[in-house]
Structure formats: structure tokens, C-alpha cells
Amino acid sequence: MVVGRRNADYQAFSKKLRQKLEEEDDMISQLPDPLICQILYHLPTKEAVKTSVLSTRWRNLWLSVHSVDLSSWDFQNLNDFVSFSDSLFDYNRVSCIHRVKLSIEERVKAGLDVVSYVKSWIDSGVKHKIQHLHVRCPPEFCYELPPSLYICDTLVILELYKMNMVNAEFVSLPRLKTLTLEDCWYSNESTFERLVSSCPVLEELKVDIAWNDTKVFKVKSKSLKRLGLVRVSPFKFDFVSGVVVDAPLLCDLSINDHVSESFSVNSLRSNAKLDVSMYFGLRCFDEESVSSRRNSIRSFLLGVSSVREMIICPRTFKIIYEYSKLEPLPRFDCVSRLCVTLCVTNLEWLSTFLESCPNLKALILDWNGNAKKMPINKMSGISFASVPKCLLSSLEFVDVKSTIFGYAVEMKVVRYLLENSRILKKLTLYLHYHAIQDDFVMRLREIKRGSDECRVVFNGLVKTV
Prior knowledge:
Strand content: 15-25%
Domain F-box: 25-61
Structural class: alpha/beta
Protein name: F-box domain-containing protein
Number of helices: 16
Largest sheet: 16 strands, mixed
Pfam family, one: FBD
InterPro entries: F-box-like_dom_sf (IPR036047), F-box_AtFBL13-like (IPR053781), F-box_dom (IPR001810), FBD (IPR006566), FBL13/AtMIF1-like (IPR050232), LRR_dom_sf (IPR032675), LRR_FXL15/At3g58940/PEG3-like (IPR055411)
Organism: Microthlaspi erraticum
């Protein structure tokens, strides 16, 4: 649905621009060639080629455009797409090709060797000093990346979708800064490791591991700054190898991994941001199940203990809480901003984790579940017996993202924060109209606060209560 909408928007833009070019041909034709080529750069190649019929002035301009953007969706069938693309790359271009984007969405038809064509197109791009390559193919292609791409000294951005990564003995990508690999297949574990480690200036890496790939993935890079890793599967495997990250300059780590049984982070900068949704290969999240991953959880928490900002999903937070029953959590001394979502019935876990964040300055809190239907015995269990150090000495901002209806458990959480936060400057609450209609605000005024400077913000309106 999203791809279709994007294509429709792109086609509408192309049509409008082409009409504009036709209407203003005389004026635009007076522009210098480089400027016209820059205009054509933003069109799909098929549309850019059509401008050649406008006049003799335009006949060959499209050949100087530094971009090739081709999608099989723009053609009536795959044969037409291949024929057009092959003739395009066969041109003996004088100019460089800075960007090549190939999107093949159709299934492969019998007798049509698309794989060989794609290889020749990419080889042509490498020959013409390509800087940005984006290739998306159907999974049945089993397309292998051509060897020429592994030693491309001009490539800056590489985006591959459903590619078969060959185990090249030599890889040299000296200028590659951004690498995206989605559902690609690697012949062995060293293939991925060698690819990443052979990019000396790589700054951003996005990896979406195929659902049935159980290999160990090692991310070793001395230059990497941003890493996004996705590893999810609808099936449960007997054993799934883990992930190892060794990137001393990493400052942004996003993990969505429900499969790996271990995730080791060897080094992370003290100003790094961590967004984590990890299950450690578990399907159950009780204390007994968590105990079976005790060593893996400890290793991961120690590896990320120096981060500055943390975003934690509900199930990962539950795993961490169950782990805290087995042994103390490491201290997160550098964490100044924490965004956490947890189940409404487990709000009492919050203070346990905050004990490990002594220098927290900003807390973004969200809970899911129906506070109205919370059992009495569960609500009475939310005692918040301890007051973490951060509430006494560092916490300045709290943003409760959950919509407040005015239920007892919600008031209990708000009361705990207001009474015990000694230097709190701002508490943001998002009130449902039910809460506005009842005496929720009046009850807030009765709370004895720990900070005289605290402002309470309701739905963006600042009030002092």
C-alpha cells in the first residue's frame, strides 16, 4: 500500500513537471545544460527520456543526467522493462552515473534471464563511477552481487534488498558511508563481517536479517556511528546465534531483535542513544525463563551501561525487571533521558529501574492496558516503597504520554512523582475529557509537592496546581 502510494505520488509529480517543461520549453531551454540536467535528475529515467521529444535542444540532454531510476512498475511487463533498461545502460555515456536505483517488483518469468541483465547494469554503473546504488529484487531472483561492486572505489551509499551476498575474498569500499541490507543472504558468517569491516569510513549501517537466518552476525567497525538492526521471526528455532557489536564510535544503536539468544556490545560511547526491543530468544518472560538467559542479559546490560539516552519497549523492560530479582542491575550513571513503556499492572517496576539511573534528568513514561479494570490487589501492590536517588537530586522533567482518565492507579503514579521529586521543573500530563470533567485537577492541588518550582502542563496548557 505504501509503495503504491509513493509510486502514485512520484508519477503525479513527474507528470506535473513534464507538463511544466512543455509549457515553458522556450524559457527553460535557455538554461545551461548542467541546470537542466539537475532538473531531470529528479525524474524517473523513463520520464526524463520522454523530454527528448520536446525539441532538438532536448534530444540528448537526458544522456548527461547523473541518475538512472528504473522501476518495473512503470512498464507494462517485465520484458519491456528489461529491454528499455538494457538499451539505456548500453549507451556509451561520457558523463558519470552518480545514482542507480533499480526496483524489480514482478515475479521472474520463464525464459527471461533478468539476473544476467542486472549484473551487466551494475557493472556499467561501476564503470561510470557510481556513488549511490539501490537494488530491490523479488526473493526468487537469488541474485548474486557482481564482484565489481565489492571493489568499487566511488560508492558512497549502498542499499540492497533480498540479494545473495557472495563470499568475496577481497572487499574494498574506501568511500562507503551508508550501507542498508534487508533480507539479504550470506554464504557464511565471515561474508557479512568482512563486508562491514572493509568499509573504513562507514558511518551508518541498517541490517534487516532474514527470518530464517540463524548465523552469528558480527558488526566490527572503527568508524560506525549509527546502527539499526532488525531480527524477527514468526517461528521458534531450537537455537539462534547471537549478535556481536564492536564499534567504539557508535553513538546511535537501535535494536529490534526477538530471535537472538545473545546480543553482545563490546564498547559504546558515553553519549550514545539506545532504542531497544529485545527478547533474548524468549517466548515466556517469567523469572524462570529469564533465568535461563541470565548470562546473556548481564552481558548486554553491562555493554550498554554507559549510554546517555535509553528507549525501552514493554517486554524488554519486563525481562530486565525479572532479571533484577536474580541479581542487581548495573548502574546506568550516564543515562540522562529515559523513555519507557510498561504494562499498567507493572508500574511498580519503575522505581526498581530508576534506582540504577542516579543522574536521570528527563523521564518519558507510557503505559499500556486499562487502568480502570486493574484488579484491586494489583493496585494495592503499587507501593513505590523506595525513592530513587534521581528523584531527589537530578530529575527535572517528566512527560506522561499515557492519556489520563483520572483512575486511582493513575493518580497514584502522579502523586508519587510530585511528592518525591525534589527538583522537578515540569510535569506534562495528557488528560482525557473525563479527567477534565471530574475533580482530577482539584485532587492534584491537594498533593504536597517536593519541588516548589514544578509546573504542571495539561494538554499543552501551562497551569500551576
